[in-house]
Recover the amino acids of this structure.
């Protein structure tokens, strides 16, 4: 008995639909480290974040505020910009800006930058 082309397509539709649904679903991102568990350096970095970054970036979400949300920033392979999620690239963006983000190279000290990076690693 021969199989019609229509029957073959109908057999593939449920599998194709499942693949499309899975492609749109990504695993949940890990939660940020609770503020009560931050080290003194990370807590100082949190303060730097609140003072300089929080008006444009959400630390505990990936949704865009004015800039991208930063939840799990270093737990992903790439930044929202497509660049690698590593200290070197994040430091460059903080110091020199990117797109609509202003440069903070003349605004924050090296200690504040180190502490901010430590905090961003907790997200």
């Amino acid at each position: 008995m021969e199989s019609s082309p229509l029957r073959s397509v109908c057999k593939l539709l449920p599998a194709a639909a499942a693949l499309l649904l899975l492609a749109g679903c990504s695993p949940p991102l890990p939660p940020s480290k609770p503020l009560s568990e931050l080290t003194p350096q990370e807590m100082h970095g949190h303060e730097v974040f609140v003072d300089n970054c929080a008006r444009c970036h959400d630390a505990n979400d990936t949704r865009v505020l004015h800039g991208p949300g930063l939840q799990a920033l270093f737990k992903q392979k790439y930044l929202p910009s497509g660049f690698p999620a590593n200290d070197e690239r994040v430091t460059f963006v903080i110091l020199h800006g990117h797109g609509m983000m202003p440069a903070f190279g003349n605004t924050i000290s090296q200690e504040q930058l180190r502490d901010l990076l430590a905090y961003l690693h907790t997200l």
Summary: The mean pLDDT is 85. Residues 2 and 8 are 11 Å apart (CA to CA). The helical segments are 5-24, 40-52, 87-96, 110-120.
